[in-house]
Amino acid sequence: MEIKLRDSEKLEDLQAGGLMIIQDSGEYRFTSDAVLLANSVRAKKGDLVIDLGTGSGVIAMLVAYKRRPGRVIAVELQERLADMAARSVKYNGMQDTIEVVCRPMQTFAAEYKGRKADVVVCNPPYIKQGCGEAQEKESLRLCRHEEAVTLDEICRAAGRLLKSGGRFYIVHKAPRCADVFECMTRHSITPKEITTVCAREGDAPYLVIVCGRKDGGEGLLWHKPIVVYDKDGNFTPTIKQLYGEKDV
After folding, report:
1. Segment 169-204, tens digit of pLDDT
2. Contact in structure between 195 and 209 (CB atoms under 8 Å)
3. Residue 147: beta bridge partners?
4. CA–CA separation, 196 vs 199, rounded Å?
5. pTM, full prediction
6. Strand partners, 83
């Protein structure tokens, strides 16, 4: 299906079943963090998945393609990114599965009247309010800094949207792992699984991918760490698989 691209936009190959995604050279571009998170999500046929802060829609599309849930709602605050995501969904013929909603996730969660979600997923802004060097461009700041939404608000939204027993997946910088656990727990989501991501074998992790369960019980499962580069500086087989048909 043909779509109209702006001068600064181009279609890029997601290397998964021929999926293509619109990316803008002047806006926030998805990173490998989003791909790692999308591959961590477990969803099954008929599930409702809600992607909070979908950006250009990469997680929503990868989850829809690889997990085949019944429906994906992709929520995005910024009109420019939501428009890109919607056009990517249309280009890939995924309109029957993915709905893009342009609203603040806090408002969406507070006013949502539909069926409770089986899965909620979020690749959030990593930088705390008032910390780090702020981006000059507002659209980039909103993606990288907790300016429009905080970690606590994200977890509150997930807690409201999930059914009891539903799963919440989030990726974050390793130093903020305690913050993730605290905010999840505050909103009735129990951390149940954690995967660390290391640049090289033996390095301290720089990312964590956490899966929590709404109204979950005790116990935390530690998965094998994901290592990005081998000793020669090349992508490991695990990372190569993430950009192809196979899952880790």
Report:
1. 999 999 999 999 999 999 999 999 999 999 999 999
2. yes
3. none
4. 10
5. 0.94
6. none
